[in-house]
Amino acid sequence: MFTKRSLKEKFSSEWKRHYHVEIFAERGFQRRKCKVCNEYFWSLKEKETCGCEKYEFIGNPVTKKKTDYIETWKIFENFFAKHDHTPINRYPVIDRWRPDLFFTMASIQDFQRIDQGNMVFEYPAENLIVPQVCLRFNDIPNVGVTGRHHTSFIMSGQHSFGGYWKDRCIELNFKFLTEAMGIPEEEIVYKEDVWAMPDFSAFGPCIETFCLGLELANSVFMQFTKTGNTYKELPLKVIDVGWGHERLVWFSQGTPTGYDAVFGPVIKWMKKQSGLKENDLFRKYAALAGNMDIDEVHDIDKARLRIAKTLGVSLKELKEIVEPFQALYAIADHTKTLLFAITDAGIPSNTGGGYNLRVILRRALSFLKEFEFPFSLEKIAELHAKYLYPLFPELSENLNLFSKIIEVEKKRYEKTLKNAEIIIRKELKEGKLDNETLIKLYTSHGISPEMIEREAKKYGIAIEIPPDFYVKITEKHIAEEKTKKEEPKIDITGIPDTELLFYEKPYERDFEAKVLKKADSWIILNKTLFYPEGGGQPGDKGHLFTKDRKIPVTDVHKIGGIVIHKIEGSLQEGETVNGSIDWDRRYTLMKMHTATHIIAGSVRKIIGKHAWQAGAKKDLTVSRIDLTHYQPFTREEIMEIEKLANKIVSGKYPVETKVIPRSEAESKYGFTIYQGGASPGKEIRIVNVANGFDIEGCGGTHVKNTEEVELIKIV
User: Fold this and answer.
1) Helices 265-274 and 315-343 sit at what angle, rounded to 10 degrees?
2) Which of 92, 306, 326, 440 could serve as a FRET partner for 100 with CA atoms 20 to 30 Å apart?
3) What is the CATH number of the domain that holds 665?
4) What's the rounded Cα separation, in Å, for the pair 508 and 577?
5) Which CATH number does the domain housing residue 252 bear?
6) Closest residue by Cα to residue 127 from 157, 94, 91, 106
7) Rounded mean pLDDT of 254-274?
8) Which of 203, 226, 256 is the last residue of a domain?
9) H or E, element range at 442
């Protein structure tokens, strides 16, 4: 059976091929087996374990100096730039280029595109580094507790797309740690592992880098792809190294928790304002908590009880000391995540990825209320933006938008709190607060476990919150769940792509073509003027003519590069036909489609860049475009949008279309080209309305000039 475990066993048995690199031989690294986790690792000094038991760097930093969040990146950037890597700016944390994901969760994701169902890479340089901010929501219960978990973090991506391979990769890893960071080489451990995509379309060995118990990087070598029950090498071998930026900062400072190092002046200010001061007990707890993981212990109170016994205090005493700190750290983390998301046009909501943003927002608000901290999320965001300005100046530019969204969300939260008390009291009386009920209360009423716990305390009732609660409610909102569209059953094997005349000649009405294939009521032509349904625009209708017959075309679809036509009648393969589209219908849809682009551009100009297309449907009398916003549009805003839209119409501006390489389109216009969704090919058809008023990737049909739209009315 083809599994990650079987691959690991095979790669381990062939370790000289998969894990032995030149630097190991040059420096004298020896392969050993850990007596605790039974994994193989490489180290210079004799060791019985790989360092998986505990952190040894807390209070004992071994780098040449302590570095903060910004300085650590500068050291990283300078080192790799000197070694032939191109530094690039981060990509948005809201993923617009992958149709299957809401958030950017790894640096390699920046360069992944879906091309006709296959994963391909688009990259601006062969060897590059990127300070990619990533969002992950599977560790929410751990955030603030373990000292190392975050919902947002920089994955300092080190990538090579065919430029170099394992020997050079680990050599650079070793030199960065020893030369740039000043870590003694005998403290470095390299651990063997395997990385794989879920479907094994790409996989390979990986080497994890540990120092004094803390994992600092994971070097993945994308080398193989599964073929049947075996595998072969990929045509392009990719180096994918994910450096834990937050961990490098923490490691250099050796603070009790990673949050103290990562959030720097922000967390210092928060502690000062709240009056929280660390004592010896907290510092001892922090050193032990770094190795605590809710995924592993399943019960946080049991883990805390174990630590409390180790420290010689009661669980109650321990919780009274550590929980305010944990809440403080969680607020700092969640606010930073929200600031990045809102900057990149993410909005808290009840659907899609916005659901997870609302989860952490309400968790942060709940902590503020519970511990009565004397500051706001807006102030914390302002401090984050100021601290991170040298690396991410865009955060400061979006503080006003952040404040507006948080203000609206706070009002919604307060309204929820008022209703929650009645609902919680009812549930407490019935005594059925199991995991299913808790999830229902949250999804239906927005009532968080913290709110239930707080209300229960008033009545002296102890509530046990399942440790995986936040995992269960957020896991469904990490990736896009696409409804598989029912495609007509027709074998297109060996059929060449259809020549798309509706792009070449959008104002033509008639054409001549040859029937290449027939299957029941569907036919394939070698070329067509009939536009297939897509992008919210209905397919064309019309007729096909032979010498003696008029055959209605009632439906048109596209499968890959092939257009299929549903007809009411019969045609023979090889037969020549004349086609005629229902021009009045098509022209109306062309005007409608262009009108939705004009509306989208108008909304972004008046409401803001955070307004993003979430869906659209064009029709003959009324069309619809769904646009995200943090509150309902007011009547005044709608009137202003309509006025601007009609100004564009009457301005007689050109509507231009061109097909360009995807990488060029992204570089020139940014990711707003994906308003209508990610593009499935290597090239993108760009529609430019009114000299840049609205620029999107779009496969629909459009008029040549905005004046043809005539008039736009928002109803």
Assistant:
1) 130
2) 440
3) 3.30.980.10
4) 16
5) 3.30.930.10
6) 157
7) 95
8) 256
9) helix 435-445
Q: Could you give the 3-state DSSP secondary structure of residue 632?
A: coil
pTM for the model stands at 0.92
Strand residues in 366-509 grouped as ranges (E): 499-500
CATH of the domain at 549: 2.40.30.130
Residue 116 DSSP SS3: coil
Domain span including residue 516: 499-581
343 shares a domain with 418: yes
Q: How far is 194 from 10, CA to CA, in rounded Å?
A: 10
Q: Report the DSSP pairing between strands 86-87 and 127-135.
A: parallel
pLDDT at 299: 63
Give me Rg for the CA atoms of the chain.
29
Query: Residue 205: which H helix or E strand, with range?
Result: strand 203-211
Residue type, 172: L
Assess contact for 509 and 529: CB atoms under 8 A: yes
**Which of 547, 581, 615 is the last residue before a domain boundary?**
581
SS3 626: strand
| Cα–Cα dist 311/322, whole Å | 13
**Is a pLDDT exceeding 60 seen at residue 482?**
no
Which residue in the block uniquely carries the two structure tokens 């770094």? 290
Q: Cβ of 368: how many Cβ atoms within 10 Å?
A: 19
Of the candidates 219, 224, 67, 93, the residue with the CA atom closest to the CA atom of residue 157:
219
Tokens of 514: 């040859």
Least confident of 190-204, 234-248, 283-297, 694-708: 283-297
Residues 212 and 89 in one domain: yes
| Beta-ladder partners of 351 | none
Q: How confident is the model at residue 486 (pLDDT cuts 50, 70, 90)?
A: low
At residue 297, the pLDDT reads: 46
What are 56-100's pLDDT values in tens digits?
A: 898 899 999 999 999 999 999 999 999 999 999 999 999 999 988
State the pLDDT at residue 325. Answer: 94
Q: How far is CA 350 from CA 145, 526, 628, in A?
A: 27, 46, 12
Whose structure tokens read 């020997």?
A: 167
- Whether 301 is in a domain gets the answer yes
Task: Tokens for 331, please give them.
Answer: 């607020």
Task: Indicate the number of domains in the chain.
Answer: 4
Please write the tens of the pLDDT for every residue from 145-175: 888 899 999 999 999 999 999 999 999 999 9
Domain check: are 513 and 568 in the same one? yes
Q: Is residue 431 part of a domain?
A: yes
Judge if 363 and 454 occupy the same domain: yes
Query: Tokens representing 679?
Result: 């593009």
- Both 523 and 608 in one domain: the answer is no
Look at residue 445 and tell me if it is in a domain: yes
Q: 303-325 pLDDT, tens per residue?
A: 778 888 888 998 888 888 999 99
Of the chain, the percentage scoring pLDDT greater than 90 comes to 72
User: What average pLDDT does the structure give for the chain?
Assistant: 91
67 with 202, same domain: the answer is yes
Is 657 inside any structural domain?
yes
Residue pair 150/245 in contact (Cβ under 8 Å)? The answer is no
**Measuring CA to CA, which residue among 50, 61, 47 is closest to residue 258?**
61
**201 and 57 share a domain?**
yes
What is the CB neighbour count within 10 angstroms for residue 626? Answer: 11
Structure tokens at 185: 């080489």
Q: 660-668, long-range: CB within 8 Å, 24+ apart, which pairs?
A: 660/684, 660/686, 662/113, 662/122, 663/122, 663/124, 665/697, 666/97, 666/122, 667/124
Partnered with residue 688 across adjacent β-strands are 656, 695
On whether both 443 and 377 belong to a single domain, the answer is yes
